[in-house]
Amino acid sequence: MNLFSRAAGPLALLLPFALVATPLPAQEAPVSAVPAPRYLQTGDQTPWIYRGSDVPRDKEWLFGELPNGVRYAVRHNGVPPDQVSIRVRIDAGSLYETDAEQGYAHLLEHMTFRQSKYLGDGEAIPKFQSLGATFGSDTNAQTTPTQTVYELDVPNADNGKIAEVMKLLSGMIQEPTLSAKGLSEDLPIVLAEKRERGSQAERVSQATRETLFHGQPLANRLPIGTEKTLNAATPASMRAFHNRWYRPENTVVVIAGDADPQMLAGLVEQWFGNWKGKGPKVPAPSFGEPVAPAGASPDRPVGETRVLVEPDLPRTLTYAVLRPWHQVNDTIVYNQGILLDAVAQAIINRRLEARARAGGSYLYAQVQDDKPSRSADATFVSFAPLTEDWQTALTDVRSVIADALAEPPTQEEIDREAAELDVAFASQVEQRSVLAGSKLADDVVNAVDIREAVAAPETVLHVFRTMKDQLTPANVLEHTRALFKGRVERGIYLTPKEGEATAEALRDALLKPVQADSSSRLAAKTISFSELPPVGKPGTVTAQAPIGVLDIEKVSFANSVNALMWANDAEPGRVTVKVRFGSGYRAFDAKDAVYASLGQKALVPSGVGPLDIEDLDRISNGRKMGFDFKIDDAVFTFTAQTREADLADQLYLFAAKLANPRWDANPVKRAIAADKLAYETYSTSPEGVLQRDLAYYQRNKDARFATPTPAQLDAATPEGFRKAWEPLLKQGPVEILIFGDYDKAKAIEALTRTFGALPAREAIPAAALARTEDFPPSSQPTTVLHHRGDADQAAAVISWSTGGGVANLPESRQLQILANLFNNRLLDEMRERTGASYSPQVVSDWPEDLNQGGTITALGQLKPGDVPTFFAAADKIVHDLQTTPASAEELERVTEPLKQMITRASTGNTFWLWQLEGATTDPRRIAMLRSLLTDYSRTTPQAMQALARKYFGAEPGWKLAVIPDGQKLATRKGGADDDGNVASR
């Protein structure tokens, strides 16, 4: 059973009538009578997924198996309302390919969407969009080494729509056209995807697989394939692969959604029941087993080792202890063993982290047990040495592990990790009624892939709580030792420096005996919130009143702190807390900009009052608490997912961080080290350069948005960090939003003792309020940056300035429609027509806390020679958007998915929290809710044309290109050249 992958769940539709565009009368698509299912496994029949298992059935699922071998699982689920999530899993991925077929499983996935029995050439995506499904999020597919999964989340799903989708999917899976024309159109797209993946990081990933899985197909059988095999594909060879593996016996259909499960089962049987495989059934290939090389020591069977030099990547070292993967019976005893393994790993990882926090020889280290692609049962150890002295770092990591292998952990350590698991499993039980249908469907697909069963959250919690007597030091020691026993041990070291290590030296280091180091064992220590100092004198409530939306109230305190509170039971056991304060990026000037970047990593770990980071871990142990920190354009935020039992303490931590921050030095030093190690990695690909530099250049080289250089990081100090951040925690109004399942009266009382007790806030300095986010002159030549990655990789960006602020929110929502129109056309041109870019995208950004700074940005990864083509395509699209009104059909492809996305999102508390944050200081945000759905889902061709003229016609787009080192920006054929304004950082 799947123990660690449960999460979200069903909510009632809470969108009030006043906020929704008046709906048209429901026009359910006509549907012929669906036959009653004949092959459900009911009564004493053991459902196919539970064969060989004693795990209690999750009775909300209905299972069936057809005579032709198709298996299915269906269930009713109302989260979000009116959505049905469909998954069709084929038991074939890249490990099922022959050497000559590498990449075929993934290429076939693309061709399946191209044309099929009920869908003409290129009709699939537009058809699903017209049904309200967003391409990429609601409509997708994925190919892994072991499976190909087709995924479709159907919004606003009446019976007729579900029947139509099942018909279309059955035609795609059973009878794709696989024509020469389709192959010629899809092959460039797949090759573009392969090109975009190629980089130093991809080479490292491939070298790691080749080393750790030496001698097995997983070592070199990537889903993306090779250029040679892909270019050799023919319609006949693709058809042969399809006939061999796309068979009823290899197919599982999973459906979870807001529909009658009997009807869903009937549809599966109707559309998949008559499918017959072509040719004889072929057994699945062997994935091999890890084997130690001849002469390896029986005690320490260290096998293949490798040193890889990549000058722009930081040092990392990974070694693995590998055992054969075997099919198991997914029993309760087996799962109890998995839980003991999890506790053993967690104890080691906590010790490794404690040593890193204290200033060790490595930045991070982690142990993880996994069964990758049914090819091995492996324990992986990964860490990042801080210096070129990798031997010391390896010794330090192995010494911590040696201690865990030599002596049992304390019961206190075991109980600490058990408490973390217990609260996680209990939360899943509390929230099972709000578990999303898409997640439920994915869980079954994952269980099928790993050859295990599925279990209800109550079963998982019961299994764990009834095994508490097994969580003893002796048992955990036994499982720890088992994790580090294997048939072969292999390792790979990545370094930026030639000559720093050899494969032989790495092998010798892995074989070298180490002394057990118990210094990182965490001594028993009890910390209680009751022992912590108060935030201040409890405050008083000065006003409490509804805001006019749902049952949300605004609560004001005498110290000018305000809260928006919505107590409801739509998401049982879940409370979201968000705190907004200060002035965000506006708070920093150029000289302190480095501390903005470091703050996102080090501000929370630097501690709260008497609590350092280790104490924060301890005090939240067995609790559902969080402490996420983020810097936005004009505000800082703390965010947490918690529960009613922990809400008061969660509020204390947030408030105490403002009132009584701690300034430990080690978290700052660690953040500096991490940023320095990561800096050069940005240069390894166009995507990395954009991640590092796009915000900086798009804001006209504003230092606040620059990624700190190693020199700037070297100059940063813990003292400078405190000097920059200490005043910022005292400035600006504070707004708290608490949305979820809690007692409002108790929460208000907790607020009086925490945020209501804060001292008066200082005003945000005028200099901060005056800082703007400037857009670069669009008349300037194309900005050209360079990367040190593969010579056939480049990226192109074109951007237009829009706006910001609350006053024009309705227009910003219409801009999202325009951006999506742009996106669809760019995707059609650059991916479908030319195959120049796999995933070009257009993004609209409209900051609500600033009255400027918004952008519409188009970007794509492509070949260097196609950069001018991208710019030309974008220019033509924006010209056409201004001069020729979009058709009603094209608009519907955009507005219907947006409408469905908003309708689904509005069933969750966090949707309303996002919409209303900032409303205590700007009540216009509340009024703007009334047009929300209409703004996103209703428009006209003329309105889109007017917006295009306003924002695209006012000025040409600002352009940026990222090309390989040593190359110049290509010129546009048949037109004016783009000047190469080369910039570097």
From TrEMBL:
InterPro entries: Metalloenz_LuxS/M16, Pept_M16_N, Peptidase_M16, Peptidase_M16_C. Residues 80-222 form the Peptidase M16 N-terminal domain. Belongs to the peptidase M16 family. Residues 1-28 form the signal peptide. The keyword Zinc applies. Pfam families: Peptidase_M16, Peptidase_M16_C. GO terms for molecular function: metal ion binding; metallopeptidase activity. Residues 234-419, 728-894 form the Peptidase M16 C-terminal domain. PANTHER family: NARDILYSIN, PROTEIN YHJJ. One of its GO terms (biological process) is proteolysis. Keywords: Hydrolase, Metalloprotease, Protease, Signal, Zinc. This is Insulinase family protein.
